[in-house]
Amino acid sequence: MAEKYYVGFDMGGTKMLAAVLDTEYTECASEKMRTPVGAGNKEMLKAIAGLVQQALDTAKVDLKQIAAIGIAVPGPIDRDKGLVIDLPNAGMHDYHLRDELESRLGARVVLENDVNAGTYGEFTSGAAKGKRNVIGVFPGTGIGGGIIIDGALYRGHSGRAGEIGHMIVEAGGRRCGCGKYGCLEAVCSRTAIAKDLVHLALNGQAPTILDKAGTDIAKMKSGVIKKAMDAGEKAVIEVVERAAWYLGVGLGSCIDIFDPDLVVIGGGLVEKLGRAYLDPIERSMRAHTMAAPDTKLVEAKLGDDSVVIGAAVLAAKELD
Amino acid sequence: MAEKYYVGFDMGGTKMLAAVLDTEYTECASEKMRTPVGAGNKEMLKAIAGLVQQALDTAKVDLKQIAAIGIAVPGPIDRDKGLVIDLPNAGMHDYHLRDELESRLGARVVLENDVNAGTYGEFTSGAAKGKRNVIGVFPGTGIGGGIIIDGALYRGHSGRAGEIGHMIVEAGGRRCGCGKYGCLEAVCSRTAIAKDLVHLALNGQAPTILDKAGTDIAKMKSGVIKKAMDAGEKAVIEVVERAAWYLGVGLGSCIDIFDPDLVVIGGGLVEKLGRAYLDPIERSMRAHTMAAPDTKLVEAKLGDDSVVIGAAVLAAKELD
């Protein structure tokens, strides 16, 4: 009998990543491609299956050796039914991705929320390795959250636990994409920062932003923000530090509620802005907790790999 | 060998309660007394031991039959060391209550946070019986919280989890007793309500409050608030409904984070004000959650007994 392997797959909004892992959860090979925007159900299925096969070829592993494929989905799913409910970017709607992929590849598939997968990846192989109770937070376009309790991913009653980005830190505050007001995501995601930066650019208070991204909120990427901060644009630094302060308010509350071993933070803003972003988050987090003010905030270590590793290991644990 | 029993003890701020439970966790007898305010370590020990003995006498149970005594403490403790860190009301400070009580009574003792015990009592025998993931919240002088995850009390990394009352729902809002600003406790505990009622009484907008409690914040008990609401004092009803709205904001966030089977709510405000308080909490809670808007808010069923039952059962599970 040939050796056993697992596949982790990240259906990211801009790129997709497939990785092959051995039974020690070590990555043997990975392949990536640009996400085919608006592809629709059938084309996405073909693209996913193709990228999985490509990664297997690179790893010189046969499909028959794959014990589990974990697919991380950046949108609402029904895990039990293996259903992708809605993924507007990829044009995928009400699609039984698990069953379709299983019959196409002849291997077992598990769907997972991408932030849960990312948090779990950092827990099994990254910054939170060896811990028991962990909060994962990933500020980006939105703010994703994942929770590890007693060494297991915590899903809650109906599989929707972990929405740390939708904890309200400012009752009646800015409107959130979810329809509530004052959610962490509404006051300190990259989208929230971008709204303020557009305003600054219009007012002439952020020349670097204006130069690199104009006044288009869709162009306010982390790299642009970084450039303006490096250029010493005070108003931009203030907007970022204010967002960091709010994130610290939310994380402080999470510590008072969960008393975790540590908090892992990752995602594009963290990767691009580094300590200029993390230091004010950490100061605010400590100022806004009473239960365990010594809880550590650590940077995620695995980058894009956290999601594919987490998805593969979660699928392996479920199907093995 | 004689049958086995457990004792649960609640060191409340105003009264103390001791209960004897059999191995089915059914209460055989209980006794209570007024808490001896400012008694100090030694006198409190004597009072606790005396009340335990009294409950045993009533139940016709011998100390030798007691397999575990659970003591619920309304203040900071070090569970591992069996230490009561600070209990100003009783005048107890840095006291090894567990060991002192064990050597005095010759039975095993476990200390527990009182809100954890209350939540656990409702979980084993009350409104949350048979559930797996439960949030308990007890608005009163402060706002206590307890968390049951996967059928077990969740304590976190350093035993300080569950501080739902110190989750910040209004960043930069009212100052809390803990030193932070905008905690749930700061904006909607009975103390927060009382601050507003004193103001109303002073302004002539709450004649019933002025009549029953004057302008003394310490006299704003739940019963007085109930009388003013029953008298139709609009400003008082508004203050209570505003507090209920804030509590719903916090509970909605808890649902988005935990996705629990249900939320149990208890304590003096709930018991006195009933639906006039619970209905606006429930409406606000549903409006402020996106993950699981159908999560139920249920009223605690056991009243004062939840704490003694929870303390006894937690001690039983630990020592048996």
Describe this structure as you would to a colleague.
- Two copies of one chain form a homodimer.
- The longest helix of chain A is centred in the last third of the chain and has 25 residues.
- In chain A, strand 10 and strand 11 form a beta hairpin.
- The first copy, chain A, is 42% helix and 22% strand.
- In chain A, helix 1 crosses helix 2, helix 5 packs across helix 6 and helix 6 runs antiparallel to helix 7.
- By secondary structure, chain A is an alpha/beta fold.
- In chain A, strands 3-2-1-4-8 form a five-stranded mixed β-sheet, with helices on both faces.
- Chain A folds into two domains: 130 residues, ATPase, nucleotide binding domain (Nucleotidyltransferase, domain 5, 2-Layer Sandwich); 170 residues, Nucleotidyltransferase, domain 5, CATH 3.30.420.
- At the A-B interface, strand 10 and helix 8 of A face strand 10 and helix 8 of B.
Question: How is the topology of this model organized?
Answer:
The structure is a homodimer of 320-residue chains.
Chain A: E1 5-11, E2 15-22, E3 27-34, H1 41-59, E4 66-73, E5 77-78, E6 83-87, E7 92-95, H2 97-105, E8 109-113, H3 114-125, E9 134-139, E10 143-149, E11 152-153, H4 184-188, H5 190-202, H6 207-213, H7 222-230, H8 234-258, E12 262-265, H9 268-273, H10 275-287, E13 296-299, H11 305-319
Parallel strand pairs in A: 1-4, 4-8, 9-12, 12-13
Antiparallel strand pairs in A: 1-2, 2-3, 5-6, 6-7, 9-10, 10-11
In CATH, the homologous superfamily of the largest domain in chain A goes by the name ATPase, nucleotide binding domain
Q: SSE order of chain A, as H and E?
A: EEEHEEEEHEHEEEHHHHHEHHEH
Q: Structurally, how many domains make up the residues of chain A? A: 2
Number of strand elements of chain A: 13
Kindly report the oligomeric state of this protein. Answer: homodimer
Biggest chain contact: A-B, 45 and 45 residues
- Report the uncertain regions of chain A: none
User: Which fold name fills CATH's third level, the topology of the largest domain in chain A?
Assistant: Nucleotidyltransferase, domain 5
The tally of helices of chain A reads 11
The CATH class assignment of the largest domain in chain A is Alpha Beta
Structural class of chain A: alpha/beta
- Overall average pLDDT of chain A: 96
Q: Approximately how much beta-strand content do the residues of chain A carry?
A: 15-25%
Helicity of chain A, in percent?
40-55%
Major sheet characteristics of chain A: 5 strands, mixed
CATH architecture of the largest domain in chain A: 2-Layer Sandwich
Q: Within the largest sheet of chain A, what's the order of strands?
A: 3-2-1-4-8
- Distance between the amino and carboxyl termini of chain A: 16 Å
| Rg of Cα set of chain A | 20 Å
Which overall shape of chain A is indicated by the principal axes computed on the Cα atoms? globular
